[in-house]
Amino acid sequence: MERISAIELLSQYASGRRDFNGIDISESDLFEANLQGINFTGSNLQKIYLPYSNLSQANLQEAQVQKADLINSLLYQANLLGANLQEANLFRASLRRANLQGANLEGANLQGADLTKADLRGANLTKADLTGANLTKANLNEAQLSGANLFRTQNIDLSGAYSDCSTIYPDGHRPDSLPSGDKCDLGS
């Protein structure tokens, strides 16, 4: 995997290059970067600093984006199919119409994020914080929501999603029982 600096990336992007498939740009500072339409397929973006950036229509399929800082970033129609976003900070990020199928968002901060019409089928949202997120028409079919915080989420449709007794629902409560009929032991 080729290592590239933030300065090199921005320079090459400004020159018209969009394909950065399989590169290593981990731990780089790309504050407010405009990288619309970039291809980071299979790239290493772990611990990258990308707040207030524009990654709309970017391809981050199978990218390693663990512990990245994407606060207030634009990821409109981004392809994050199978991406690893464990513990990423996506606070108030715009993920409208993003493809997050099979993405690993375990422990991610999605507070206030806009996930309108996002495809989250089969995504792992275990212990993710979605407090106040907008999930209007988001597809959560087969998404894992074990231990997720859904407090004050807007317009969420949980049909087809997997939750458990540790999931915090939009009203702030944990369930008394699961859809299977099993009772939750709230005393432990």
Describe the protein in words:
This is Pentapeptide repeat-containing protein. It holds the Pfam family Pentapeptide. It comes from Limnofasciculus baicalensis BBK-W-15. The chain is largely without helices or strands and 188 residues long. It is built from one helix and two strands. The chain has a two-stranded parallel ribbon with strand order 1-2. Helix 1 links the parallel strand 1 and strand 2. It is elongated. The N and C termini lie far apart (47 Å).
Which tags fit this structure?
188 residues, little secondary structure, Pectate Lyase C-like, two-stranded parallel sheet, 2% strand, 5peptide_repeat
Class of secondary structure makeup: little secondary structure
Mean pLDDT value? 95
How far apart are the termini? 47 Å
Q: Looking across the biggest beta sheet, what order are the strands in?
A: 1-2
**What order do the SSEs take from the amino end to the carboxyl end, as H and E?**
EHE
The CATH topology label is: Pectate Lyase C-like
Domain module count? 1
Rg computed from alpha carbons, rounded to a whole number of angstroms: 17 Å
Strand content: under 5%
Q: Mind telling me which CATH architecture this is?
A: 3 Solenoid
> How would a crystallographer describe the biggest sheet?
2 strands, parallel
Instruction: Using the alpha-carbon principal axes, give the shape.
Output: elongated
* Quaternary: single chain
Please specify the SSE layout and strand pairing.
Elements: E1 2-3, H1 6-14, E2 23-24
Parallel strand pairs: 1-2
